[in-house]
C-alpha cells in the first residue's frame, strides 16, 4: 500500500517536471531563433545600403556621360554646318572666278589687238588723205609701209601671248599638227612622207596646236616602165 501511494505521488511530479523542461526548451529555442533573426536582419540591413547606393551612383554616372555625349554631338553638328556653309561659299567664289576667267581671260590679248587695229586705221586714213590722184607708186609705198608695220606688230602680240606660227616645210607629216590636202611627187632632195608645201599656216598656243596646218605631203613618184 505504501509503495503504491508513493508511485501515485511521483507520477504528477514527473509530469510537472517534464512539462516545465519542455517549456524551458521552447523558450530557449524561441530566444535563439529571435536572436538569430535579429542578427540576420542586422546583417541584411548593413548590406542593404550599398545595394541601394550602387545603382544610384551608376545612374548618375550614365546621366553625366549622356550629357557629355549630347554636348559633343551638338558641337560636331555646329562644326559640320559651318563646314558645309564654308564649302558652299568656296564653290560659289570658284564658280564666279571661272566665269570671270571665261569672260576676261583674253582681255590682255584683246588690248594688244586694239593697237593693231589702230595701226591699220591710221594707215588707211593716211593713204586716203595724202595720196594725190594718179600717184599709184606713192600709194603702194604707203600701203606697203603700213602693212609691214602691221605685220611686225601682230608678230609681237602673238609672241607675247604664246601664239606661235608653225613652219612645217621639210618636217615629217604629223596628223596631230598637219591637215593633209593632197600628195605631190617628191622633188630632188625632198624626203617622201615630209611636208612639201603649206597651203595654210597652222598655229600653236603655248605648245598646244589650235589650228592644223594645211599641207601637201611628198610621196615617192612611181617609175614608168
TrEMBL record:
CDD domains: GrpE (cd00446). It holds the Pfam family GrpE. Residues 59-86 form a coiled coil. One of its GO terms (cellular component) is PAM complex, Tim23 associated import motor. One of its GO terms (molecular function) is unfolded protein binding. GO terms for biological process: protein folding; protein import into mitochondrial matrix. SUPFAM superfamilies: Coiled-coil domain of nucleotide exchange factor GrpE (SSF58014), Head domain of nucleotide exchange factor GrpE (SSF51064). It is found in: Mitochondrion matrix. It comes from the Eukaryota. PROSITE patterns: GRPE. Keywords: Acetylation, Chaperone, Coiled coil, Mitochondrion, Transit peptide. Essential component of the PAM complex, a complex required for the translocation of transit peptide-containing proteins from the inner membrane into the mitochondrial matrix in an ATP-dependent manner. Seems to control the nucleotide-dependent binding of mitochondrial HSP70 to substrate proteins. Stimulates ATPase activity of mt-HSP70. May also serve to modulate the interconversion of oligomeric (inactive) and monomeric (active) forms of mt-HSP70. Probable component of the PAM complex at least composed of a mitochondrial HSP70 protein, GRPEL1 or GRPEL2, TIMM44, TIMM16/PAM16 and TIMM14/DNAJC19. Belongs to the GrpE family. This is GrpE protein homolog. It comes from Rhinolophus ferrumequinum.
Amino acid at each position: 500500500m505504501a509503495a503504491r501511494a508513493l508511485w501515485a505521488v511521483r507520477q504528477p511530479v514527473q509530469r510537472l517536471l517534464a512539462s516545465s523542461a519542455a517549456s524551458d526548451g521552447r523558450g530557449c529555442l524561441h530566444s535563439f531563433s529571435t536572436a538569430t533573426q535579429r542578427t540576420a536582419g542586422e546583417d541584411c540591413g548593413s548590406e542593404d545600403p550599398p545595394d541601394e547606393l550602387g545603382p544610384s551612383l551608376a545612374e548618375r554616372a550614365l546621366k553625366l556621360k549622356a550629357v557629355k555625349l549630347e554636348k559633343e554631338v551638338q558641337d560636331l553638328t555646329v562644326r559640320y554646318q559651318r563646314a558645309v556653309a564654308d564649302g558652299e561659299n568656296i564653290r560659289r567664289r570658284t564658280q564666279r572666278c571661272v566665269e570671270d576667267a571665261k569672260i576676261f581671260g583674253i582681255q590682255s590679248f584683246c588690248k594688244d589687238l586694239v593697237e593693231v587695229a589702230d595701226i591699220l586705221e591710221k594707215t588707211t586714213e593716211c593713204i586716203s588723205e595724202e595720196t594725190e590722184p594718179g600717184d599709184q607708186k606713192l600709194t603702194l609705198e604707203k600701203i606697203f609701209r603700213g602693212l609691214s608695220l602691221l605685220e611686225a606688230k601682230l608678230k609681237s602680240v602673238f609672241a607675247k601671248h604664246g601664239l606661235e606660227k608653225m613652219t612645217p616645210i621639210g618636217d615629217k607629216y604629223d596628223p596631230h599638227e598637219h591637215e593633209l590636202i593632197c600628195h605631190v611627187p617628191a622633188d630632188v632632195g625632198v624626203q617622201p612622207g615630209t611636208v612639201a608645201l603649206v597651203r595654210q599656216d597652222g598655229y600653236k598656243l603655248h605648245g598646244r596646236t589650235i589650228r592644223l596646218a594645211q599641207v601637201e605631203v611628198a610621196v615617192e613618184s612611181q617609175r614608168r616602165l
